[in-house]
TrEMBL record:
Cited Pfam families: Trypsin
GO molecular function annotation: serine-type endopeptidase activity
Protease recorded as keyword: yes
Protein name per Swiss-Prot or TrEMBL: GD25541
InterPro entries attached to this UniProt entry: Peptidase_S1_PA, Peptidase_S1_PA_chymotrypsin, Peptidase_S1A, Ser/Thr_Proteases_Immune/Dev, Trypsin_dom, TRYPSIN_HIS
Species this protein is from: Drosophila simulans (Fruit fly)
Location in or out of the cell: Secreted
């Protein structure tokens, strides 16, 4: 991500209003008080982030969505040999910034209509064993209600986290965060099933692929982070718009994929 090392977090709080309570894919995505604070330190550092590794090198971002499943971009799995997922990662150059766990990817499920990064660029990874949640590792919230599309379409402000390329072609070791604003898909040259975003000061870049596009939503008495997109591609030389798969438009596929492979 570019251009700043220190990126500001912009919190967007929305209300579901007339949509009421939406069914969550995994209700454990809502942090308990005990999961928020450990030893007086803030442990809520996007604990759903997944660090994809291929041949001992960083490959892509992703998001933990359930006990054995990670969501990422399909193009991140085209070379699928020897793929692993590290959870609880924050600074890949250190071993003392929090507990991390490594999982082998045993199955990869691609959208049947995936052709390239502009169309249905979504994949589900099944992990070798069940993930135990704690303050550093917890899934992102995902709404399953089919009637939720209109609300999702009204979302304008998002947050992207990832380990993508920064200014001067530098890859960060520390998880970066930026804010984005939805714009017309014409700016990205993307089809309708994607979300086009832009920020005049910060840009998504190579390496952010597969990372979750999220926003905070008021859910009952809680404010939760909900995933709305999956980072797919950027325009130009990481100095313009970025496109994200619209997760809500692919909810039927995601639900069916998980139900068929849950065991």
């Amino acid at each position: 991500m570019t251009p700043s090392i220190v990126l500001l977090t912009f919190l967007v709080i929305l209300s579901l209003g007339s949509y009421g309570y939406s069914q969550l894919l995994d209700s454990k995505c809502i942090a308990t008080h005990r999961m928020r604070i450990i030893g007086g330190q803030d442990a809520q550092r996007t604990p759903w982030m997944a660090y994809l590794i291929r041949d001992n090198n960083f490959a892509c971002g992703g998001s933990l969505i359930a006990h054995r499943f990670v969501l990422t971009a399909a193009h991140c799995t085209e070379v699928n040999d020897n793929l692993f997922v590290r959870l609880g990662e924050y600074d890949s150059s250190r071993t003392t910034d929090g507990p991390t766990r490594l999982y082998r990817v045993v199955s990869i499920y691609l959208h049947e209509n995936y052709k390239d990064f502009r169309n249905h660029d979504i994949a589900v990874l099944k992990l070798s064993r069940k993930v135990v949640y704690d303050a550093y590792i917890r899934p992102i919230c995902i709404f399953l209600n089919s009637g939720y599309q209109a609300f999702a379409n009204s979302m304008q402000d998002f947050i992207l986290t990832g380990w993508g390329l920064m200014a001067h072609n530098k890859m960060p070791t520390t998880l970066q965060k930026m804010t984005l604003r939805r714009v017309s898909n014409e700016h990205c040259g993307a089809p309708g099933l994607n979300i086009c975003c832009w920020n005049p000061m910060q840009y998504a870049c190579f390496g952010d692929s597969g990372s979750p596009l999220v926003s905070s939503v008021k859910y009952g008495q809680s404010t939760i982070y909900v995933q709305f997109g999956v980072a797919s591609f950027v325009t130009g030389e990481c100095d313009g718009y970025s496109s994200y798969l619209d997760l809500t438009s692919h909810m039927s596929w995601l639900s069916q994929t998980l139900s068929r492979n849950w065991a």
